[in-house]
Write a structure and sequence with these properties.
The complex is a heterodimer. By secondary structure, chain A is mainly α. Helix content of chain A is 75%, strand content 0%. In chain B, a hairpin with a 2-residue loop joins strand 1 and strand 2. Classes of the chains: A mainly alpha, B mainly alpha. At the A-B interface, helix 1 of A face helix 23 of B.
Chain lengths: 103, 629
């Protein structure tokens, strides 16, 4: 894999990150924002994996696998929280969730 | 007995008795309490000196001290108070508020005994004021009657004027030294001496304070006997007696002159009165003048002796007058105190007549009666003093002798007009039944007017009383005192004879006295306008206050008002400067900041995603800066 291929990988990562950012900034629903955050994380993972091609120890790829595992945990916990919030307040819109604790 | 118990018994018993009488509505309680006080005081006479001291403030050791003089006078006060209580039982029998009366008498007796026990001048002043207060309360006992409250107020206020001087004197002494009578050791300056003398003049009704005593006669007659003849008015003499060794010589001279002038003034006024109580009141003023003069000329113990004898015979005369007034009140509706309505009472009230006669002879200074002996002592002391002070000083003993003559004259006039001749108004038929409540006090007081209770010799002016005094003089019997004695006997007898020839039954004065008009001798009748002068002084002070009030209103208030207006104008100007010159720039800065702030505030919003967008933009800007610039 040469440097030209790397450029394409980086374009892909930039695209993923930008679209994730776009989703986070524009969508009102908390679920979409969570998806946007996932996209941004995956963009970063792609960058890690791509750059680790030039590293004999493949530390970047190992770190990316860690990140994926952590993301899975994070997403499951975040979804559970969101579901609970929805159950309590019947709201999933981020701007409506202004209070912490028992409403 | 321990000192505390004695003091409580003698001092507080009258007060407690009075209060209990008021609460329980039993007059006998106060009689019992006074008997206790009297018996205790008799024990104190024969026991040694008694002192109780307690610290009031740091450096002010208030002390009660009963020495020989105090114990004798306490015995006198409680004894006469007891007799007056007994007399009052019958005199006030019909009275509605008689328990209030006995409570006030108890308060008075307590205050007077307190005054006699007080050794510290501040304590003495407290009791001094209490005595004045209880006197005021008793004068105003019949407060519903016309003129009584005004008279009580006048007596109270005149006393207050003198008490201010006393208080000032005490304060000056406080700056210069001790305040305990027993601790005095050096002579005082003139100012405190004269101030304390003025205080004593007020209580003892000396000129120019004499006016209140005649006004005080509107109170019940037993009260006049106790307070305004026998005890309270002698408080001034007692104070002078206590401080006499420390008074400045010039102050002593003033005291002697005031005393003798008062004695003369009182005797002169007494000669022209128609009200029997006023005769006695002026006579009291006159006798108090003798006592004060006695202190002034260095015969303080003679004054104390006269105080003692005078208390007996004057209380007897007042109680006798009370009996007469009581009787006239029952049989007629005319003024019961006016001698023009009396006459011929000799056969109607024989007991009163005899006792009144004895007391009157003592007052007139006839030998074999107590008044003669004590007055002798004062006149002889006056003579000895005059010998040392030059020719003009003979004015004092000479006026004293003239007063003795006038005294015999007015006593004779009073007794002849009241008891002799025929009754001047109809209705004097029923004989007056003098109950034991009247007879016992009158008899005891009349016996007290005899010489034998003071000395075996009727011509001695030195009694057993004087032997008890610490600074007692030894009896003098030189030719001068013999002359004085001879002169005063002669003058007293001459006064009596003159009185008889003028006022005897059937004389032109006596037969027309019932229709006597007050137009003649009005100056003397009104006490030489002394009370009127108080009113003039009062209205003068009022006018002065009015004019100072006007000055205050016009000048001082005007100035302050102008100052206020100018302050307001100045503040308005400063406020304008403040608003436009100082506030302007500050407001401008404020508005600029507020404008910038509101613009900046509109950038942020509640929306978290907008904030995030700005954050992203900021990060991009920073990255751009780092990477490309």
């Amino acid at each position: 894999m040469n440097e030209t291929m790397l450029t394409y990988y980086l374009y892909l990562a930039a695209f993923l990150f930008s679209s994730g950012t776009y989703v986070v900034l524009t969508k009102r629903s908390a679920i979409f924002v969570l998806i946007g955050v996932e996209l941004m994380l995956n963009g970063a993972n792609v960058v890690l994996a791509a750059f680790s091609q030039f590293d004999a120890g493949l530390k970047g790829q190992i770190f990316a696998i860690f990140a994926v595992v952590l993301t899975v945990c994070e997403v499951s916990i975040a979804l559970a929280i969101l579901l609970n919030i929805y159950r309590k307040t019947k709201a999933s819109n981020l701007d409506e969730l202004t209070e912490v604790g028992n409403p | 007995m321990s000192p505390i118990i004695s003091i409580i018994l003698v001092l507080l018993a009258p007060l407690i008795g009075g209060v209990l009488t008021f609460i329980l509505k039993k007059s006998a309680v106060s009689i019992a309490s006074l008997s206790i006080a009297f018996l205790t005081s008799m024990l104190l006479v024969f026991s040694s000196e008694l002192v109780i001291a307690f610290e009031w403030l740091p450096g002010y050791e208030l002390s009660l001290r009963i020495d020989a003089v105090a114990s004798i006078l306490i015995a006198l006060v409680s004894f006469i108070s007891l007799l007056v209580h007994v007399f009052s039982l019958e005199y006030m029998k019909e009275e509605q508020g008689k328990h209030r009366y006995f409570a006030k008498l108890g308060l008075f007796t307590f205050s007077m005994i307190g005054l006699l026990t007080a050794d510290h001048l501040i304590l003495l002043f407290v009791f001094w004021e209490l005595v004045g207060l209880s006197s005021y309360l008793l004068i105003g006992f019949w407060y519903g009657k016309d003129g009584v409250p005004a008279s009580a107020r006048l007596a109270f206020m005149v006393n207050r004027v003198a008490d201010v001087a006393l208080l000032a004197g005490i304060l000056i002494l406080d700056f210069t030294g001790e305040l305990s009578i027993s601790a005095f050791d050096k002579q005082w300056l003139f100012l405190p001496s004269i101030l304390i003398a003025i205080g004593a003049f007020g209580k003892s009704a000396q000129l120019p304070f004499s006016g209140w005593l005649t006004k005080a006669m509107v109170g019940p007659t037993p009260v006049s006997a106790l307070i305004h003849a026998a005890t309270m008015v002698t408080a001034g003499v007692y104070l002078l007696f206590r401080v006499a060794p420390f008074l400045h010589p010039a102050a002593l001279m003033v005291i002697a002159l005031v005393g003798i002038l008062t004695a003369f003034y009182g005797a002169l006024c007494a000669l022209f009165q128609h009200d029997i109580k006023k005769v006695l009141a002026y006579s009291t003023i006159s006798q108090l003048g003798y006592m004060v003069m006695g202190v002034g000329v260095g015969g303080a113990d003679a004054s104390l002796f006269h105080l003692f004898t005078h208390a007996f015979f004057k209380a007897g005369m007042f109680l006798g007058a009370g009996a007469i007034i009581h009787y006239l009140h029952q049989v007629s509706d005319k003024d019961p105190q006016d001698m023009r309505n009396m006459g011929g009472l000799r056969n109607l009230m024989p007991w009163t007549y005899r006792t009144f006669m004895m007391c009157g002879l003592a007052l007139a200074g006839i030998p074999f009666f107590s008044g003669f002996m004590s007055k002798e002592g004062i006149l002889i002391a006056g003579w000895a003093w005059a010998e040392q002070h030059g020719t003009w000083a003979y004015l004092v003993p000479d006026l004293g002798l003239i007063t003795a003559f006038l005294t015999a004259l007015y006593v004779g006039r009073m007794m002849l007009l009241v008891f002799w001749g025929e009754p001047r108004i109809a209705g004097f038929k029923t004989k007056f039944t003098e109950g034991f409540g009247f007879r016992i006090p009158l008899t005891i007081l009349a016996l007290g007017a005899l010489w034998v209770f003071y000395s075996w010799s009727p011509f001695s002016h030195y009694s057993w009383l004087n032997a008890l005094l610490p600074q007692g003089i030894e009896p003098v019997s030189d030719s001068a005192s013999m002359i004085i004695m001879f002169l005063s006997i002669l003058l007293a007898l001459a006064g009596m004879v003159l009185a008889y020839s003028f006022f005897k039954p059937g004389s032109s004065y006596s037969s027309s006295y019932g229709k006597y008009e007050v137009e003649r001798f009005r100056l003397a009748l009104n006490g030489f306008l002394l009370v009127r002068s108080y009113e003039k002084i009062g209205s003068g002070i009022e006018q002065l206050s009015q004019s100072t009030f006007k000055v205050d209103q016009r000048v001082i208030d005007g100035t302050i008002h102008l100052l206020g207006v100018w302050t307001v104008v100045l503040s308005k100007i400063i406020s304008l400067i403040d608003r436009f010159i100082v506030d302007g720039p500050i407001d401008l800065f404020g508005q600029i900041s507020s404008f910038i702030g509101s613009r900046l505030a509109s950038l942020s919003s509640r929306d978290s995603q907008t904030q995030l967008a700005w954050l992203v933009l900021g990060v991009i800007l920073i990255l751009t800066w780092i990477l490309f610039l």
